[in-house]
């Protein structure tokens, strides 16, 4: 009996120590991102919401999981190559402290918090306000600022706007590939030293 207890203790200590080191490595913080609004947004004309009844039935049979749907067919897909961003970022390098890969949050500086406050729910339609995340001059992820009062659901990346917040969270609606911790995105960011 004592051997079993000793084994369980050693086994538990081993995995708790290894778990801590793994979570520490995953708890990296990254800088170097900016968020831009889009000029003259080009909506996704390939969205499944544009399909006729016959095509919808075929679509439902083919894709039994949202994650298997190609990004370009998702309703809120943003073609980052063909959508132009504004000249100046909405949130620039001095507005963003860091991006946390662990929980997909962006911590804001005081200036960033003030800019988020300007996005009143009344200034964003129920269909959201599109943006593109940029790092090192590269457009990396398209997303939507969203409001809690919207009756619509965003099936891609979104940021829910709240009045008072230190953090904004990149949420994923489940359609297509989750780009929040995609290697292409993370490799463009600057890892911040502790």
Account of the 3D structure:
With 194 residues, the protein is an alpha+beta fold. The chain has one domain (29-191). Helix content is 25%, strand content 24%. It contains 4 helices and 9 strands; from the N terminus they run αββαββαββββαβ. It has helices at residues 2-26, 53-62, 110-117, 183-188, and strands at 29-31, 33-37, 96-100, 105-108, 129-135, 138-147, 157-161, 167-172, 190-191. It has a 9-stranded mixed β-sheet with strand order 2-5-6-7-8-4-3-1-9. Strand 7 and strand 8 (167-172) form a beta hairpin. The chain is globular. It starts with a helix and ends with a strand. 24% of the residues are buried.
Detail the topology: elements first, then pairings:
Elements: H1 2-26, E1 29-31, E2 33-37, H2 53-62, E3 96-100, E4 105-108, H3 110-117, E5 129-135, E6 138-147, E7 157-161, E8 167-172, H4 183-188, E9 190-191
Parallel strand pairs: 6-7
Antiparallel strand pairs: 1-3, 1-9, 2-5, 3-4, 4-8, 5-6, 7-8
């Amino acid at each position: 009996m004592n051997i079993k207890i000793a084994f369980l203790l050693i086994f538990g200590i081993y995995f708790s120590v290894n778990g801590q080191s793994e979570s520490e490595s995953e708890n990296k913080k990254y800088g170097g991102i900016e968020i831009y609004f889009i000029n003259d947004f080009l909506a996704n004309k390939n969205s499944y919401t544009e399909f006729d009844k016959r095509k919808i039935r075929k679509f439902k049979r083919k894709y039994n999981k949202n994650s298997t749907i190609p990004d370009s067919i998702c309703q809120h897909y943003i073609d980052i190559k063909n959508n132009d961003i504004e000249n100046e970022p909405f949130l620039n390098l001095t507005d963003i402290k860091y991006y946390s890969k662990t929980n997909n949050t962006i911590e804001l500086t005081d200036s960033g918090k003030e800019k988020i406050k300007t996005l009143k729910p009344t200034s964003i339609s129920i269909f959201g306000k599109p943006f593109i995340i940029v790092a090192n001059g590269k457009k990396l992820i398209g997303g939507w600022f969203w409001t809690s009062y919207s009756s619509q659901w965003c099936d891609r990346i979104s940021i829910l706007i709240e009045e008072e917040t230190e953090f904004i969270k990149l949420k994923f609606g489940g359609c297509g590939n989750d780009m929040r911790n995609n290697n292409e995105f993370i490799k463009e960011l600057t890892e911040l030293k502790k």
